[in-house]
Prior knowledge:
By secondary structure, the chain is an alpha/beta fold. The protein has two domains: 5-81 and 181-252, HAD superfamily/HAD-like (Rossmann fold, 3-Layer(aba) Sandwich); 85-178, 2-Layer Sandwich (Hypothetical Protein, Haloacid Dehalogenase-like Hydrolase, Chain: A, domain 2). Helix content is 27%, strand content 23%. The strands form three sheets. An eight-stranded mixed β-sheet has the order 5-4-3-2-1-12-13-14. A four-stranded antiparallel β-sheet has the order 6-9-11-10, covered by helices on one side. Strand 3 (62-65) and strand 4 form a beta hairpin.
Amino acid sequence: MRKKFFFFDIDGTLAYGITGIILPETIATIETLQKNGHFVAIATGRLQCSAIPQCKILGIQNMVSDGGNALTLHHKIIHMHPLPKKPILDLIAELEQHQIPWAYTAENKTIRHTKYVKFKELAGASNMDTLLHSSIEIAAIEQFYKIYIYYPNLKELNTLPSLTELPQIHYNNNMLLIEPTHKEKGIFHMMEYLKADIADVVVFGDGINDLSMFRPEWFSIAMGNAIEALKQKADFVTKRCEDGGITYACQRFGWI
Length: 256
């Protein structure tokens, strides 16, 4: 059997529901893939540390995280690049000018910082702890990994020219995340690091932030619950996450 290099999204792919349920059969499939000699990694937009619990449950040691900006191999961080600082500082200046509530993450911890009480009150549930500060010395922040913007009115954000230069994801109805959105770059870098053939890559995904990693260079599988645009780009559409879609695809192609 030819060795494959699997990259799995988390939410909606490996796990489903608000609480992130992972099917026992999915865990068993990941274990079997690795026993059969395949390389298995997570490919997520999450901060590296916030994906570690899923890695532990699944027995996965490798990760493309931070939307492609960080690589972890055998539990060791190979690199972890922050967002470009100048555009972020320009954005923060505009947010401050318009008094739009925002928060930031500046280290590999599930913590975000804000000086806006409104942000902490209205941002909603998250896997990040929100710390409230009376003031923030922006010049003292060395790097930014994520920016979170609370907006009750989308028109407000359309007035911010700096947003056009930054990768972004609408997290929910009132939260915009500024975070890397190029998982495919992380996959390319991982394969270069491993000195492996990109034609042996297999990716699984379901959402808008997976579109960039559905590439013609490798094999792409969309979950049955995936957005339609991803299904259109996929080489194969499997069953829904909660219906054992990962196991179904891996059995169909003889990987387990």
